[in-house]
Design goal:
26 helices; 665 residues; five-stranded antiparallel sheet; Beta-Lactamase; Rossmann fold
């Protein structure tokens, strides 16, 4: 036997059998535990064979906390704090209600209190039954039953130990609790964090050890319910985060759950009750296949005729072990947007990035900005290489459709036998080799945005008919399809052909031409904007020098003269290619005429005319002769004087059949 000597708590020595009876135990004689409790309160040794270690250690903590054993605790949180705790623990409370009610029914003939607390000992929910006028403990919501507030008690000691606790009579620290038997068990969440305590307090005469097992089972059931609610909440959150709607039905096709995304796709304000799925998805064939045959399928495209209009959906189905089915719905438009994004269908150019300051170009930009202010069908004409697609992208980015897809179709590059399916798409079984799910065409992929039909003059007549119908009705019918799909697109077309001549030759429909020609935008050739050549050349020089890591910093006067005089039949595209080639082969810090392609140099030799009126090569020869004479035949110094490399000087002398010896005579 061992004990502990301690100073008695205030008033402890005055505790007597009379007070014991006054606290409600009038017909009971003090038992052995009460005598040990009295000894502890008097600071005397206690029999550790009678007092359980858990109880003894809790008594010591209670004394250290300064708990008064002769006074009932009245510690409680205020109403505002209680409201906060109830809101924070709402799932926990809801998980416990049904189980607490069932347990209360089982003990309703006894004076009892069943309570649920949070992890600080604050009571959140209570069931009380009193049929004999007992002074029941204040287990009402808001009261605090931690050891620090009430000493040794079922709730507080259970919280401290995070384990089931059973206290009988005088094992409680406070005298007023000696008439009670308490059994408490902890409740945890899915991550083993302590949520709170489930406790039952029964009048001591009704005490039975089976109560502990019942309480522990109830606490375990609440823990399982909490974990299940957490899992269901996580699953619900995941379902709502998915970019697809989810519908679960039983074996008869009756709805079990419908996600908010599915409601949005189907135009339903809120999930309906237990109705048949055919009430919200009018696609009988697809539903029948999944429900009766219990087979899976994926991304079956269906055009649903809903009250708010036709909606294209991709439906998938997966049977469940209970013979039900999980359906997933994805918006056809949304999937086409993702496909368009994956194809890189995005406009990157804007009017601010168009380089040039010539009057013809400024007028073309002004007209382009006007075209961007509405959805008017626009026809861009211009020679090859003038930048028609650059203008189309700029119009798109300056319009209200800037954030939507920009889909490019090169009509001249599509095989004639595939152009219809590429543009308008096809349904399942439309032709041999067609995908089982069908395929949207370019017009569907551009829905909401802009489609750019480059080289429209190369489109076959049979495709022109379908395009004309689309422009008139804003509807597209897939090859093999039974119904039309409404689309919202802006059409920009471009060509370097004379479409009026094509109409006269009956290779282009006149009605389509007039439909496309609602707004005509003419892009000037580079030959008509000579002043922009140097600006463009400088831009391309910086671009390719940076890309190649070369220190080419400028263009020599001779090279600039060459670029100015050349007619540029390939327009800006040809100029860009010429500068790229020149930067690649340049060995100095400036581009020289010899760095450019032979076609450009040959044009200079044949037709180059200086601004002074003589032929360019004659002027060059005279200039070289003067430089050699001034330097006394020193070719290195002569090259420096001319601003060219020595190798370039050698080449020019060879071409002009000039010999240093002859010049110095």
């Amino acid at each position: 036997m061992s004990g502990v000597a301690a100073v008695a708590s205030p008033g402890a020595c005055g505790l007597s059998h009379e007070l014991y009876r006054e606290c409600g135990m009038k017909n009971a004689a003090p038992d052995a535990m009460f005598l040990q409790w009295q000894r502890f309160m008097a600071g005397q040794e206690v029999d550790r064979q009678i007092v359980k270690p858990m109880v003894y250690e809790s008594w010591l903590r209670s004394r250290a906390y300064g708990v008064r054993p002769d006074r009932p605790s009245e510690v409680r949180v205020d109403d505002a704090r209680l409201a906060e705790l109830l809101a924070a623990n709402s799932e926990f409370v809801e998980s416990s209600k049904v189980i607490m009610e069932k347990l209360f029914t089982a003990v309703e003939n006894a004076n009892s209190v069943i309570s649920l607390t949070d992890n600080q000992g604050v009571v959140l929910l209570t069931h009380v039954h009193n049929n004999q006028g007992y002074r029941l403990p204040s287990h009402m919501p808001g009261y605090v039953f931690s050891e620090r507030a009430c000493g040794t008690n079922g709730i507080g000691t259970c919280l401290h130990c995070a384990a089931p606790v059973e206290l009988v009579g005088a094992e409680h620290y406070c005298l007023h609790d000696h008439i009670w038997y308490c059994s408490a068990a902890p409740i945890f969440d899915s991550k083993s964090r302590l949520l709170g305590v489930f406790n039952i307090s029964i009048a001591s005469e009704s005490f039975h050890h089976h109560t502990r097992g019942m309480v522990e089972a109830a606490a375990h059931a609440i823990t399982e319910q909490v974990c299940l609610r957490e899992l269901l909440s996580e699953q619900a959150a995941i379902m709502e985060l998915l970019d697809e709607g989810v519908i679960v039905v039983d074996h008869e096709g009756v709805l079990k759950s419908v996600s908010q995304k599915a409601c949005a796709i189907l135009g339903i304000a809120s999930p309906p009750g237990a109705v048949h799925i055919s009430r919200i998805i009018p696609a009988a064939d697809v539903l029948h296949t999944a429900l009766t045959r219990q087979v899976s399928f994926h991304d079956h495209e269906v055009l649903l005729e809903l009250p708010q209009g036709a909606v294209s959906c991709l439906i998938s189905a997966t049977p469940t072990p209970q013979k039900g089915v999980v359906f997933t719905l994805r918006e056809g438009k949304r999937m086409r947007e993702l496909a368009t994004r994956a194809l890189g269908a995005k406009a990157s150019y804007t009017f601010d990035r168009i380089i040039g300051d010539s009057e013809p170009l400024r007028e073309a930009i002004r007209q382009g900005r006007l075209a961007a202010q509405s959805d008017i069908t626009t026809l861009i004409i211009g020679e090859s290489g003038t930048g028609k697609e650059l203008f189309a992208q700029s119009i798109h980015n300056a319009s209200h459709r800037a954030s939507q897809p920009f889909v490019v179709v090169n009509c001249g590059a599509l095989p004639r036998n595939l152009i219809q399916s590429e543009l308008f798409g096809y349904d399942e079984g439309a032709f041999t080799g067609a995908s089982r799910q069908g395929k949207p065409g370019k017009f569907e992929l551009a829905d909401g945005g802009t489609i750019f039909l480059d080289e429209i003059g190369e489109m076959p007549l049979e495709a022109q008919v379908s395009l004309l119908r689309l422009l008139q009705n804003r509807e597209v019918t897939r090859i093999g399809g039974k119904s039309a799909r409404r689309i919202n697109i802006r059409v920009i077309a471009a060509t370097n052909r004379d479409l009026e001549e094509a109409v006269r030759q009956n290779v282009f429909r006149h009605d389509l031409y007039y439909r496309l020609n609602a707004f005509l935008l003419n892009i000037p050739p580079l030959a008509a904007r000579r002043g922009d050549v140097e600006l463009l050349a400088g831009h391309f020089l910086r671009k390719f020098a940076a890309a190649l890591g070369k220190h080419v910093q400028g263009i020599s006067p001779e090279a600039r003269e060459l670029l100015y005089r050349y007619p540029w039949p390939g327009n800006v595209r040809e100029l860009e290619n010429a500068i790229e080639r020149a930067v690649n082969v340049c060995s100095g810090q400036s581009l020289t005429p010899e760095d450019f392609p032979a076609a450009i140099l040959q044009h200079r030799a044949v037709s180059g005319v200086s601004r002074k009126g003589g032929r360019l090569w004659e002027q060059e020869t005279e200039t070289i002769q003067k430089a050699i004479l001034e330097t006394g035949g020193n070719l290195r110094q002569a090259a420096q004087l001319l601003g060219i490399s020595r190798s370039t000087l050698y080449l020019k002398m060879k071409k002009g059949n000039l010999r240093r010896e002859d010049l110095l005579q």
